[in-house]
């Protein structure tokens, strides 16, 4: 994207907001790692290129643009973590082929189901409010088709549940930002469960540890998508 007069204060590797000639806020740069998303304080904002005193509208626009950029970058980073760990684990079921697919609901009643929890982080795209939760929820549905051609094929569908911002309460569920170690944990658990179902694993262990942390507020069921769907319990 073309940007008008990028200041010398621009630091490569961090997220910046500038105004282009159309007076629209744009993003330059990218976040260096998934862990950067843990704190909005690491987002660097240089001096505006247009010498106009900021207004409330400008501030809100900047916050929303920053939230969109962080959200888009996080989606790409999170996909890489999920697919990378999935490939490492489920390739061990070779020659059977397994596929990881996001899904809004159960594909079919005949599919097996597995539910897990993790510590996750959220960031509101509208106001920039950030919070952590020890009740991040993921549900997996899996099925191995023995008649796949040329080899049996397995499908692992999953749904990541969101939470609403307590400041905005706009009815939109923000996407959870998963820590890499939590992704490793839940994919390892569902890998063992699939192994028990189809490949003769004997009583595989399930990890229930979570990344340390103490959220500042208690869990609010009214703002939790998993609670609304009846999925925010401790059972697997």
Automatic annotation (TrEMBL):
InterPro entries: R-trans_p, ZAR1/RTP1-5-like_Znf-3CxxC. The keyword Transmembrane applies. Keywords: Membrane, Metal-binding, Transmembrane, Transmembrane helix, Zinc, Zinc-finger. It is found in: Membrane. Its main location: membrane. SMART domains: zf-3CxxC. One of its GO terms (biological process) is protein insertion into membrane. GO terms for molecular function: olfactory receptor binding; zinc ion binding. Residues 117-230 form the 3CxxC-type domain. It is a single-pass membrane protein. It comes from the Eukaryota. GO terms for cellular component: membrane. This is Receptor-transporting protein 4-like isoform X1. The lineage of its organism: Eukaryota, Metazoa, Chordata, Cephalochordata, Leptocardii.
């Amino acid at each position: 994207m073309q940007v008008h007069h990028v200041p010398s204060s621009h630091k490569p590797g961090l997220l910046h907001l500038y105004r282009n000639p159309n007076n629209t806020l744009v993003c330059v740069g990218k976040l260096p790692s998934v862990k950067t998303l843990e704190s909005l304080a690491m987002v660097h904002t240089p001096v505006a290129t247009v010498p106009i005193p900021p207004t409330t509208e400008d501030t809100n626009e900047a916050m929303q643009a920053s939230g969109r950029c962080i959200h888009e970058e996080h989606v790409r980073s999170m996909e890489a973590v999920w697919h990378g760990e999935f490939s490492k684990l489920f390739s061990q079921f070779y020659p059977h082929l397994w596929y990881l697919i996001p899904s809004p609901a159960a594909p079919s009643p005949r599919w097996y189901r597995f539910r897990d929890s993790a510590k996750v982080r959220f960031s509101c795209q509208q106001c920039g409010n950030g919070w952590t939760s020890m009740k991040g929820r993921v549900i997996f549905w899996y099925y191995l088709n023995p008649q796949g051609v040329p080899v049996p094929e397995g499908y692992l569908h999953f749904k990541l549940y969101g939470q609403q911002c307590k400041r905005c309460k706009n009815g939109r569920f923000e996407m959870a930002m998963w820590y890499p170690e939590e992704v490793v944990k839940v994919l390892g658990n569902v890998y063992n469960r699939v192994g028990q179902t189809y490949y003769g694993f004997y009583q595989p262990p399930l990890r229930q540890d979570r990344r340390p942390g103490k959220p500042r507020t208690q869990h609010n069921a009214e703002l939790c998508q998993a609670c609304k769907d009846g999925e925010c319990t401790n059972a697997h």
